Amino acid sequence: MTADTGRTRRLDLRRIRGVVFDCDGVLFDSRDLNRYYYNHILLALGLAPMSPEDEEYSFMHTVDASLARIIPVDLRSRAAEVQGNWNYDDFIDRMVPEPGLFELLRVLEGMGVRMAVNTNRKNSMEMVLKRFELTRFFHPVMTAAKVARPKPDPEGLRRIVEDWGFSAQEMSYLGDSSVDQETTVRAGVPFWAYRSPDLRAQLHVDSFHELRQWFETGFCEIID
Prior knowledge:
The protein is elongated. It is built from ten helices and ten strands. By secondary structure, it is α/β, with parallel strands linked by helices. Strands 6-5-2-7-8-9 form a six-stranded parallel β-sheet, sandwiched between helices. The chain has helices at 31-44, 52-60, 63-70, 76-84, 89-92, 101-110, 125-131, 155-164, 178-187, 208-217; strands spanning 8-12, 18-21, 28-29, 96-97, 114-118, 141-142, 171-175, 191-194, 203-205, 219-223. It folds into two domains: 8-30 and 96-223, Rossmann fold, CATH 3.40.50.1000; 31-92.
């Protein structure tokens, strides 16, 4: 929830017809996978592991942008060869579903709330959803490979709005980064921040158990 400054208001969740989720840091704790993946490329090239700043950047941006940041220009062709020799299946089991994820998705599905994904992952999102048996919950699934420009460009989120045919105020985007926050501002969609109290958001969510309970009761109290 937001910090207590004295005024309480009620957010009516009964009007929410669709929730869009970011993947990394929201649906899944994938920081260990992210660090492991990029550091293995760096190690194969004889380079030092990522700095904390590079780790944070790579967690929010596309693989292409991340590699452009951490790999010197003269080694990028070799980095592509290293990537080509790996099967992403070898990494997926390092992803950890957020606690309460499956219960939340089943409740939203039962309530008829639409769900979608908007992520800066490029080609692995469908594979991840299939591996964890989540494919049926999310449509559409927007990735960096399906848009001209990835987040924070609003293209992916706007395409979800168009696909669903809802008013932007009948949906929300649940993310965990400043990139997600900017995306929602540019798309005109309410932003819900997941475990990110420093971000500006309509709603701050600390856990999926909490969010599920709010949907089940139909509202939550927000302290402005």
